[in-house]
Design brief:
With about 375 residues, the chain is mainly α. About 70% of the residues lie in helices and about 0% in strands. The protein contains 16 helices and no strands. Helix 2 packs antiparallel against helix 4 and helix 8 runs antiparallel to helix 9. The radius of gyration is 21 Å and the shape is globular. The relative contact order is 0.17.
Length: about 375
């Protein structure tokens, strides 16, 4: 019996889905930067951390908007799909956070009010597994954008939604408006989702950057990302609702996303980098578990990295990025096993066992 699903899982030829290679690659790059950013706190070079945080969360929402489509989709099937792909993994990662919280930080949930607010996501966050807030915002955005795009999903209408959310985001952030379940963060991040949808429209319309302008566009985008995200704005964190100057955050997030989209379109064609695509295909599972997986290493770096013969410059330039890369390489077989055993908790549509048997049955017939 041929294990077809294993071959397809690790092959560029596809895995039986409609994944777009460069988008998977872009998600893979994004998740690497997320992991690297969470590890980089142990390093004194804050400019690198500022550069990563200035765009890495917006980048995921741009990509989510880029693949978002409501045409011909009734609400109930749409809702069920998003519950399976986003909300059920969210609940799984909350349970994981509770286990980790009581195991490693027993005093974190000693206050019943804090515990209740955390477990119900009233504040839009969960202690001990902070990246989970991303899935909550994404789920909320899917529902809000479904409603808006059903009203109007043309370019003109999307520009109206974009301007509306930029204004709402500025007001929400400037006056520090609290809205339950992380809706204040969702409002501030929504412009990136809509921008991604507009990019989708331009690509579908046949818009392409000419080869001679491709590198120039990438360089300009990278320059604007660094200028507005590192030099003109301060450190930002969507989780902490600290965006610095909101306008600069929007600009750096957008141009950083454009740069990495262009880079992904180019680099995804390199065969030996396909492992990055695998990270992208499993970005939900990695997003929800990596923070737990790095608790021990972060403690080790903070306490011993300078005690074992490494100076800080070496740690910055090699040790931390190398560990982030090694951790994500280990994640590839881990994600494969998780996809087999708990696909609903990894954001996948079906059991890979079912995929296997359907392939075997088809071959036998």
């Amino acid at each position: 019996m041929e294990l077809t699903f294993i071959k397809n899982y690790f092959s560029r030829k596809g895995d039986g889905t409609n994944h777009i290679a460069w988008i998977d690659f872009a998600k893979g790059l994004g998740i690497f930067l997320v992991v690297l950013g969470h590890l980089w706190y142990v390093c004194p070079n804050r400019e690198v951390l500022n550069a990563i945080y200035s765009f890495h969360v917006p980048f995921f929402f741009v990509l989510s908007g880029l693949v978002f489509n409501t045409k011909g989709k009734r609400f109930l099937p749409f809702l069920i799909n998003k519950i399976k792909r986003v909300f059920i993994p969210l609940l799984f990662f909350i349970v994981l956070a509770i286990i980790v919280g009581y195991t490693f930080y027993k005093n974190v949930f000693s206050d019943p009010q804090v515990a209740l607010e955390s477990f119900t996501l009233w504040n839009g966050e969960i202690y001990c597994n902070k990246p989970v807030y991303f899935l909550l915002i994404l789920f909320e955005l899917y529902l809000v954008m479904y409603a808006l795009f059903r009203i109007g999903d043309g370019v003109f209408e999307k520009i109206i939604w974009l301007v509306m959310f930029i204004i709402l985001g500025f007001v929400t952030y400037h006056y520090k408006v609290f809205i339950p379940f992380g809706m204040n963060r969702m409002i501030c991040i929504a412009p990136f989702f809509i921008a991604g949808s507009l990019i989708r429209d331009f690509l579908k319309a046949g818009f392409k950057i000419k080869k001679r302008y491709y590198v120039i566009t990438a360089i300009i985008s990278a320059g604007l990302w660094i200028l507005f995200g590192v030099f003109l704005n301060s450190y930002v964190s969507v989780y902490s609702f600290n965006l610095g100057k909101y306008g600069l955050f929007l600009i750096s997030g957008l141009f950083g996303s454009v740069f990495f989209i262009l880079a992904s379109m180019l680099l995804s064609k390199i065969n030996f980098l396909y492992f990055i695509n695998l990270w992208g295909k499993n970005s939900v599972f990695i997003m929800g578990t990596h923070f737990v997986a790095t608790i021990g290493p972060v403690w080790l770096f903070r306490n011993y990295v300078t005690e074992i013969g490494f100076n800080t410059n070496f740690a910055i330039s090699f040790v931390v990025p190398a560990f982030a890369l090694a951790l994500l390489l280990v994640y590839i077989p881990v994600c494969f096993i998780a996809d087999c055993l708990i696909p609903w908790f990894t954001g996948k549509k079906q059991f890979l066992y079912s995929y296997l048997f359907s392939k075997v049955k088809h071959k036998q017939n």
